[in-house]
Amino acid sequence: KLRVEKGRYEAECDKSLEPVNVLKLLENTLMIKRFREGHEVTLNAEAARPKSSGPKVLKLFLASSFELKKEREKIEEALNRKNKLLRKRGFMVELLIWEDGKHIGTSLRSQDNYNLEIEQCDLFVMLFYSKVGKYSLEEFELAKSLYEQNEMPRICIFQKDVDLPKNLKKADADSRYAFLDLLAGLKHFPTLFQNEDQLVRQLEDAIDKLLVDEAFVQRLKEE
Description:
two-stranded antiparallel sheet; 9 helices
């Protein structure tokens, strides 16, 4: 546009190195209206309109044991509401949970199918309470390994901080303490929550912080 307005109509093609008439090129591609010498160049309405693109998608994998089913349901409900606001900012959260079973059939071992989701996610969120099952631990180890390789996915751990069940089995209690020791060794301290509303607020805060992290946002894919 500036070259045409300044009367410099000739430019060299990067590929052929032949001279090119910029004015005719732009007119032929409908980028500008018919140009008159001495007048400002006006772009066609279609050319001036920015191309629309879909929202950036944050894929969130939610790992937890069956005992936290209500918390998972509350998160799913909250993210459905939050997405209505996020879309106005050009974002959305896609929740990946094992109940969905998107990749069932790609492996004989069900856990391998869930692990495929972790490999594709941008944020790995884990909830735990009275125990940490072997599959939850496997999911965490996979997410940690992926993060160490590529700084993705980001990882958030939430611990339900209320009295433990009185009939808690020793094996379950041991798995919980072993996981806490593992986190302590990594200097990764879980975020404590006492009820579903508090959990949702903390998770939404974590998402909001990530969506103002320019380096993180650049790695998100569009819908």
